[in-house]
Structure formats: structure tokens, C-alpha cells
Amino acid sequence: MIKIMADTNVFLYYFFKIDESKLPLINNLLKESLHKKVQLMITTRILDELIFKSIILSSGLDTKKLKSDKKKMKRYGYVIENIFNFIKNFNIEIKETKQSHYEKLKNCVEKYGLFPNDCLTLIAMNSLNLKYIATFDGDFDDTFAVNWFYKE
Fold first, then answer.
1. CB-based burial of residue 125 (10 Å sphere; 0-12 exposed, 13-18 middle, 19+ buried)?
2. Helix (H, G, I), strand (E, B) or coil at 133
3. Superfamily assignment of 2-150 in CATH?
4. Which of 24, 110, 120, 121 ranks highest by number of CB atoms within 10 Å?
């Protein structure tokens, strides 16, 4: 079975229909996951980003407004539940972002010129011996990661 790291944007595009032209690619990937042709993986860092951005997008508010209104924020617990149900339904593995990953962060940022969150993904992929990433941004283009969506 091929193991694939899934970037946050894949889930955000799927959940919020950000770019409907990407949906067939995502649906195909999810179908392959259900049929156990691929194993999707995320890190705890990706999960954190997914939850945070999903709550912001679900609320329609900016971060500052939502943070200042705890009563409104309390309404978005269902977003977390929905994400965990999705992860369970598609048997997505959650891999821990470790202290050792952070210790390699400086070198990764200097080598690839990526933001630290993307470097943490690369470092995790390297530690798990993963070749493929599913993503819709070009951040990983000049790295060892091969984009699953455009691998051919």
C-alpha cells in the first residue's frame, strides 16, 4: 500500500469547496483510501492547522473577532467532531510531530526556503520514509516530495 502525506489544503478544499475543479482529484484519492490502495497520513501539526482553519472558515469571522467572543467560539466544537469522524471514516493515520522534528527545522528552512510548518511536514515525511504528498500548493515543488496529484 502506498503511503501519502496529506497537506492541510486538501481537506480545506474538500470541506469548504474552495476550488471545485480540485474535487475530482480529492474524491479519487479518498476512494483509493477507502479501497485500501493508499494510506493517507497527517501529522499532529497538520491536524492542528486543519482544526484551526476549519473553525475560522466555518465561522465566517476573522481570528481576532472569534477569539474575543468565547460564546461564539463555543459553537464550533462540532467542527472538531466532524474532522475526527472524517479521519476515522477514511482511516487516516495521525503521526506525532516530535521534538526531534523541531530540532531539524532550522536546517530545513535554510535548505528549502519553506515556512516552518511546511518544513515540519517534510521532516516528518523523511522520518517516515514517505515519498508522496497530496497538496494543491507549490510549496513542496523543489523538495524530495512528489506531489501525488501530479506525479505523472
1. buried
2. strand
3. 5'-nuclease (3.40.50.1010)
4. 121
